[in-house]
Structure formats: structure tokens, C-alpha cells
């Protein structure tokens, strides 16, 4: 059997990390099994769906490298296919028209709740042998309801939750077509999964209640349902369900804030799956290790501080030549034109940064004028250190502009003045880069033009 998985988001809001995890796992499973990963956009909610939300889905998946083999398929473009299957179901007596109005249905539910019964459709319009149906009301377009099996149960072995079994008597007859003939969600999903030959459905556990209904429709259509894995919810940092309403950011915002795609994939993978104690791993390792058997059973909580730490580890391990183009985008967005120094700057500065935006903040100091704070100037540029700064400037005028020669000049000034390294280095850093904390001073100075260093030291 060739594994075929899918990600089927609804473009009714900007996709966030909790949503995209439901793309990561089926993508990883398909890739790890040599299978096929399909993207399907479930856009039948016309009032709430938007092209902007579709764009964020496509952009976010492309950024994270969650490439799809087929699609994107759009449900609204498949309406003729759904209606064809509805006609076949009508011919096979698998569905029936129901003329119960919304007001009648509401009244029925109120009576049931008053009697402490589960609110559900009572089968008034379901044809049965020997049953007399109510007279058809004039001018009313019916919905189509699916004939759910009576008696017995529907069960499946969930790859996350284990064995789940629901009595068919708990399920009423599902509306699968509205009065205007448009099909409903649970029906469309089944037709799509059949047509796209989906073998494994990996999705959020908010779909668990839909699953028995969908399985019964699969079987009514003569098909076996796929394997299901229902993922526990991702919670935000306050312990609430992650959602746009609760402040979740669109996934593309993490790209804009300077996170690496591989780091986000690494972090997301650990939000509900594990491989021993491995915290930091490459995309290749993830695909090598991934299986549906190690998905977590409890809700995972998003922690942006942990994500930043994971991102920092990936930045440290990333070749400077690959990091530089990402930093360059941020610099160009600020009107800064970087030069050939950028990869070397990334290597020098990345250990103290947790995002490429933070790295761009540091790199910008090498391309823009700096303005030390009055507080730093007062603290570090004292009368006692000014002669040493002047001496260093004179020595740097004539040395070869490379790290070893610059380091020797600094040592010579220390020997001549009796100062300790921090007493000289911190004032130089303040003048040259506007901050008292930088990487090794000789490495910093080497990556600045000599004339810039001398000009800034002269301001002492």
C-alpha cells in the first residue's frame, strides 16, 4: 500500500502554528514512507473564507518546506463531483429528504434538553417500512439526511487515542446537503478522501466527533475508511487552545520575526512527538525517525522562549554562507546594502543572537553610523582612558588591517599604559559599535573599515 496523506485546512483565518502542526505530521509520515502528500483547501464556508487566508497557508507551507505532491485542490471547484455522489446515494436510498424547519428542530431540541435527553434529530422524515410520513409542506426545499445505521456501533483504532467505539444510536441522521443542494462538510470530506485515495488521516482531535459519522458514510459508499490519528490540542502560553481569537500569530509572522524554517519544524515536531530525549535535530533526522507510533497523547503547550532557544541552536549550526542571505533580506528592508563582509559578520555575531532579526540588528552596526548613549559615554570614556584611546588610534593607522596585527596593537597599548583588557576594550567598543558588549575586539575591528574605526575613536 502506498501511503497517501493530506492536509485539509479551512481558509477562514490565518493559519497558526497549532494548525500547521496538522500539516507537519502527515507530511513527515508521507515523506518517511515514500508516500504522497496532498494539499486540499476546504473553502466551502464562503462567508468566512478568504484568498488572504489561502495565501498564508501556501506561503507558510512553502517557507517551512512542507511541499505537497498533489494539489492544492479546492472543494468549491469539486461541487459537481459532490452532487454526482449525492445523486448516486439518492438512487441507492442512502439519503432522504427532510422537511423539518429550523424552528421545528429548535423546538425539538428544547424539549429534549428539558427532558434531560441528548439533543438530536428524531428521524421524523426518515422513511421506514409501514411508517406514515407527515404531509410535505408546500414551497419548502428539504435538506438531505444520511441514513445512519440503526443499532450496533462504529469503531476505529486511533493511532493516538487507541480504540474508540461509538454506538450508532448516539448518532442522528446527518444533514449532508442543504436546501439549495450544496453539500455539507462531513460529506465532502469523505468524497475527497475516497477520490484522493487517502490512506492515513492525521488531524486535530476536534475532529474526533466527526469521525464516526464519516466512517459510516465511507462504508455506505462501499469504501473502507483510512487510518486515523487525532492529535491533542496545542495550547498557547496561557494554557488556552491556540487560536487567532486567543492571540495566535500567523505562521508567516515567525518567518518575518527571524525564525529559521528548520528550527520551527524542529520545535513543532516536538509539540506532540518525540524521539527519545532528542531536542535539537535536522529535518533529515526527523524524517528518518518519524512514525505515527510516537505521537503524544496529551496536549502540548507552546513556549516562545523555548522556540527562540531552538532557533538559536539552529543558527549556531547553520553555515554562515546560508545564514547571510536571510540576514541580507532584513538589512535591505531597512535600506542597508550589505557587502562581502556579511557572511563573516554572521559567523562572528550569531552566537549571541536567537533570530535572524537580532543578527541583522548587530550587523547593522557595521554598516550604519552609531550613536553611543550618554550613559555609556560617561561611564566608559573617562579622562584616564583617553590617552590610551589616542595611542591605539595612532597605532592602528599603520598596521596591516587583519586580526593578528590589530590584536598586537591592542596588546602594545595595554603594555604601555598598564591597563587591563576590559579597561581599554569596553571604551573602544562603545565608541566603535555603540555598545560595551561585543565579540572579540580584534575580530570586530577587522570587519570595520579602518577609516570608520579611526573616525569613531577620534570622538573620544
TrEMBL record:
It is found in: Cytoplasm. A motif ('KMSKS' region) lies at residues 241-245. Pfam families: Anticodon_2 (PF19269), tRNA-synt_1c (PF00749). Keywords: Aminoacyl-tRNA synthetase, ATP-binding, Cytoplasm, Ligase, Nucleotide-binding, Protein biosynthesis. This is Glutamate--tRNA ligase. Residues 323-459 form the Aminoacyl-tRNA synthetase class I anticodon-binding domain. Catalyzes the attachment of glutamate to tRNA(Glu) in a two-step reaction: glutamate is first activated by ATP to form Glu-AMP and then transferred to the acceptor end of tRNA(Glu). A motif ('HIGH' region) lies at residues 9-19. ATP binds at residue 244. GO terms for biological process: glutamyl-tRNA aminoacylation. Residues 3-309 form the Glutamyl/glutaminyl-tRNA synthetase class Ib catalytic domain. One of its GO terms (molecular function) is tRNA binding. It comes from Ramlibacter pinisoli. NCBIfam families: gltX_bact. Its main location: cytoplasm. The lineage of its organism: Bacteria, Pseudomonadati, Pseudomonadota, Betaproteobacteria, Burkholderiales. Residues 116-129 have a biased composition (Basic and acidic residues).
